[in-house]
Structures are given as structure tokens and as C-alpha cells.
């Protein structure tokens, strides 16, 4: 008998769509529920305590409503702060998103890596730990940008990002001491791959960007290997369904739009 249980993706906004895209490419028959905590957006400027309280509770409600086979926290901020608590609270497997420092260290020739995330993510001890474990011989520079998160949201609501605003956000990384030697940038926020073209155009020539999306997609495929899929209607769910959310939804390929 085929299995209609979806994969549930969760983010504060549209960022997790950068994880959905490689997952859809690998698992085209998987039913998807994409949940955006638009009422709590943005996460990156919030205190750890707020995120730690909010995310497990919301995921609990989402799992109860949609009964997924697997939940994906497609958000670096939520994962680096709340992943253990979410795992403890849910009775389904949970895949998190962590900054792709390990692949970046494997790619870097100059041994200087940039980590571009939200303000909350770049200050997490989890990031110190990844840098020490996987990039011990690299200089790891970090920058948190709320502006890039807003630009990605606006882009998906069809407002083109101003090149000067993207350049200004990148300057916070490349203008740090040693920043001129960065050859790989970790997109440590799932919103940022949605600005891939704009970031590449604004960065110094030769700089490469890496994110966790493709690796997460492979992890989802491995955790669901051998399972059946019954393709149902993909669902987009917002915790607040206002004008911005309706504009975003109109440009996306989801059969149903709901509010939580
Ligand atoms: N997309 C999220 C991340 O990966 C957070 C964006 C935000 O709400 O600030 O960190």
C-alpha cells in the first residue's frame, strides 16, 4: 500500500525552500508540507530563549496536524538553537540544518572561510564547535545579516534585491581583517541560497558559496530509502497568512495554502 505521509519542512520564512528544491530533485514523488513561521519571522534577531521556546511547540502542532514521516528544520538559526529539544519533543525523525563549514574547509585553498548567517546563528557555540572540529587550520570569519534575510523574502514576493544592499551586507564579511583572503563562503542561513545570483555578482571574483541544502536532501533520501510515496497535494502553511505570504504563495508550486 502506498504511503501518503509527507515530509514536513520548517523555517521562519521562505528560506527552507532552498532545501525543498534539492529534495524535490532527488525525491520527485515525495508529498511536501512546507511550514513558515511568518508570525515569528525573523528568527535571526531574536533571543535564544524565544527561539528555544517557540520552535519545539510549533513543530509539535505541525506534526499533530500533518502526521509527517520526517520533519526537517530547514533553518540554521532554529537548528543550532533548538534541534535537541525538537528531537526530544517529537516522535518522528528530525533532520536539522547546520552551517556547511566542513565542506567549505574541504574546498578552501586560501584557508580563510566566511560564514554568512543570521546574527543569532553566527554567535552560537555550535558554530565554534564546527569550526574547531572541521576547519581547525582555517581562519573562520563570521558575519550576521538580517538585511539579506529581508532581501530574500522580498525577492520571493517579486521585489528585485538592490545590488548595493547585497554588496553592503557582504562588506561586513569581506572587510574584516583577513577577509580579502576568503575563497569560500558558507551560506549559513537557508534564505541566502535564494539570493545565489546576487551574492555571486557582489562577491570578489573567484569566491565560491556552499550551503547545506544538497547534503540535507541526500540525508532525507537515505532516511526514507525503500519507503513508498503516494503523491498528495503539496501544502504551504503559514503561522500568519497576510499580504506578503499571499504574494509569496502565488509564485510557488504548492496546491494548497493554509494557516496554522
Ligand atoms: N532561514 C533562517 C536560517 O536559516 C532564518 C532567517 C530569519 O528568520 O532570520 O537561519
Detailed description of the structure:
- The chain has helices spanning 17-26, 48-66, 76-89, 101-107, 119-122, 125-134, 146-156, 163-174, 196-202, 213-223, 243-250; strands at residues 7-11, 32-36, 70-73, 94-95, 112-117, 139-144, 184-187, 208-210, 235-238, 256-259.
- The mean pLDDT is 97.
- It folds into two domains: 7-97 and 214-259, Rossmann fold, CATH 3.40.50.1860; 101-211, 3-Layer(aba) Sandwich (Rossmann fold), CATH 3.40.50.1860.
- It has 260 residues and is an alpha/beta fold.
- It is 43% helix and 17% strand.
- The protein binds D-glutamic acid.
- D-glutamic acid binds at residues 11-13, 15, 41-44, 75-77, 118, 121, 149, 189-191.
Quick structural overview:
The protein has 260 residues and is α/β, with parallel strands linked by helices.
Keyword list:
Rossmann fold; 6-stranded parallel β-sheet; 4-stranded parallel β-sheet; 43% helix; 17% strand; binds D-glutamic acid
Count of extended strands? 10
- Summarize the helix and strand pattern as letters: EHEHEHEHEHHEHHEHEHEHE
CATH architecture of the largest domain: 3-Layer(aba) Sandwich
CATH class of the largest domain: Alpha Beta
CATH topology of the largest domain: Rossmann fold
**What is the strand content?**
15-25%
Shape label: globular
Bound molecules: D-glutamic acid
Structural class: alpha/beta
Strand order, largest beta sheet: 4-3-1-2-9-10
Q: Unreliable segments (pLDDT under 50, ≥5 consecutive)?
A: none
Main sheet makeup: 6 strands, parallel
Distance between the termini: 30 Å
Amino acid at each position: 500500500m502506498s504511503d501518503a505521509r509527507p515530509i514536513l519542512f520548517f523555517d521562519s520564512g521562505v528560506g527552507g525552500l532552498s532545501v525543498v528544491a534539492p529534495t524535490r530533485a532527488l525525491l520527485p514523488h515525495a508529498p511536501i508540507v512546507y511550514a513558515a513561521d511568518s508570525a515569528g519571522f525573523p528568527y535571526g534577531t531574536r533571543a535564544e530563549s524565544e527561539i528555544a521556546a517557540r520552535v519545539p511547540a510549533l513543530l509539535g502542532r505541525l506534526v499533530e496536524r500533518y502526521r509527517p514521516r520526517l520533519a526537517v528544520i530547514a533553518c540554521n538559526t532554529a537548528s543550532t538553537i533548538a534541534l535537541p529539544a525538537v528531537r526530544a519533543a517529537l516522535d518522528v525523525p528530525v533532520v536539522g540544518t547546520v552551517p556547511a563549514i566542513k565542506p567549505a574547509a574541504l574546498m578552501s585553498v586560501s584557508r580563510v572561510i566566511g560564514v554568512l548567517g543570521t546574527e543569532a546563528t553566527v554567535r552560537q557555540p555550535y558554530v565554534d564547535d564546527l569550526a574547531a572540529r572541521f576547519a581547525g587550520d582555517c581562519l573562520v570569519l563570521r558575519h550576521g545579516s538580517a538585511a539579506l534575510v529581508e532581501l530574500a523574502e522580498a525577492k520571493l514576493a517579486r521585489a528585485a534585491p538592490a545590488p548595493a544592499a547585497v554588496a553592503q551586507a557582504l562588506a561586513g564579511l569581506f572587510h574584516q581583517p583577513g577577509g580579502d583572503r576568503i575563497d569560500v563562503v558558507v551560506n549559513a542561513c537557508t534564505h541566502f541560497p535564494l539570493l545565489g545570483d546576487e551574492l555571486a555578482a557582489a562577491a570578489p571574483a573567484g569566491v565560491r558559496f556552499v550551503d547545506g541544502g544538497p547534503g540535507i536532501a541526500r540525508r532525507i533520501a537515505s532516511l526514507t530509502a525503500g519507503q513508498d510515496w503516494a503523491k498528495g497535494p503539496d501544502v504551504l502553511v503559514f503561522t500568519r497568512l497576510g499580504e506578503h505570504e499571499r504574494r509569496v504563495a502565488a509564485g510557488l508550486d504548492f496546491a494548497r495554502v493554509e494557516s496554522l
